């Protein structure tokens, strides 16, 4: 397998049909790039099979990554003449999403692709759907019981922290007194805990640790507020890892407003905005670690295959895998040109 093909498999997370490969990140900004789907140009197309109905639910697109998730799912489903996609509003919180899913389950779709508001709180409704014979593909935010889904596809949250930790560690190698800051997303989510643990574990191998940590909430506003608090608490910094490029818009605004430039920053997810800053060298942001929203396209493919009783064409097994974890790659000025077409708009 070529390096390019391998990269596509790792990012896309699934193979489709005979030798099909999925490409990497995508954008929800149609001016820059279309949502990533399995087209004839980048994947072998399967012949239409049994008609299936797939339900889909994800939190409202209050930032670019979630917007790209929903755009990818819709675009991928539209590629299949045998798929009917039913999108249900996730509401403002977990109880609202549960209520919407209860109605969806009553309609008995063949499968549901679900990115929960909160994996633990949505576990029971996932199990209810599975018990009703509906295939559930758990997307990104993990249920607390694996029996609540047929398959789970997610980014490597711990691996994001590892990638960020190695980048920071290499840049600060030998500087054991370095002051490192961290701006995570929503602290209550397991994915945030995994990212922070990967970062801390990796920094430890370099004799480094996080000295200042202020959580945000995956939005521009919370990113700006968290960064302002962090900068006030730390009069000097050597490096900062911001977990999310969407909240990073606010983080960078706070840094610019404070006139701080003595440190470098690593982002998270791989937005087009972050890549532009990395390429132009016009902010403290020098790298970002990926968390591809193309996983939503892959989740639709998995749901269709499972609902039609098929497995992946490149695998011997008769069913799709129970777990797919995507790789996290590091984007710097040296390789940013390769990734620019793949970034989502914040």
UniProtKB/TrEMBL annotation:
Keywords: Signal. The keyword Signal applies. It holds the Pfam family Peripla_BP_4. GO terms for molecular function: carbohydrate binding. Residues 54-310 form the Periplasmic binding protein domain. GO terms for cellular component: cell envelope. Residues 28-48 are annotated as: Disordered. It is found in: Cell envelope. It comes from the Bacteria. PANTHER family: D-ALLOSE-BINDING PERIPLASMIC PROTEIN-RELATED. Belongs to the bacterial solute-binding protein 2 family. This is Sugar ABC transporter substrate-binding protein. It comes from Dactylosporangium matsuzakiense.
């Amino acid at each position: 397998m070529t390096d390019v093909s391998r990269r596509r498999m790792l990012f896309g997370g699934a193979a489709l049909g005979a030798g099909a490969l999925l490409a990497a990140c995508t954008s929800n900004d149609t001016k820059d790039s279309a949502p990533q789907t399995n087209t004839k140009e980048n994947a072998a197309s399967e012949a239409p099979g049994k008609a299936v109905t797939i339900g889909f639910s994800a939190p409202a697109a209050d930032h670019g990554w979630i917007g790209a998730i929903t755009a990818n799912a819709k675009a991928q489903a539209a590629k299949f003449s045998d798929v009917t996609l039913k999108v249900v509003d996730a509401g403002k919180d977990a109880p609202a999403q549960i209520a919407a899913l209860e109605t969806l389950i009553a309609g008995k779709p063949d499968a549901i692709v679900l990115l929960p508001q909160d994996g633990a709180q949505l576990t029971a409704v996932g199990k209810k759907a599975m018990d009703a014979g509906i295939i559930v593909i758990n997307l990104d935010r993990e249920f607390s019981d694996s029996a609540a889904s047929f398959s789970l596809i997610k980014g490597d949250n711990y691996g994001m922290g590892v990638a960020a930790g190695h980048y920071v560690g290499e840049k600060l190698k030998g500087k054991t007194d370095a002051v490192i800051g961290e701006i995570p997303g929503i602290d209550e989510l397991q994915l945030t805990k995994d990212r922070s643990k990967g970062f801390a574990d990796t920094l430890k191998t370099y004799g480094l640790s996080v000295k200042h940590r202020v959580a945000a909430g995956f939005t521009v506003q919370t990113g700006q507020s968290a960064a302002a608090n962090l900068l006030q608490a730390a009069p000097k910094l050597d490096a900062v890892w911001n977990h999310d490029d969407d909240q990073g818009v606010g983080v960078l605004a706070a840094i610019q407003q404070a006139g701080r430039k003595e440190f470098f920053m690593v982002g998270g997810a791989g937005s087009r905005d972050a890549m532009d800053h990395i390429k132009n060298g016009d902010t403290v942001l020098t790298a970002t670690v990926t968390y591809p929203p193309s996983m939503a396209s892959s989740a639709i493919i998995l749901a269709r295959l499972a609902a039609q009783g098929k497995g992946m064409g490149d695998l011997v097994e008769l069913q799709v895998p129970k777990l797919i974890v995507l790789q996290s790659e590091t984007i710097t000025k040296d390789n940013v040109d390769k990734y620019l077409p793949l970034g989502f708009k914040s």
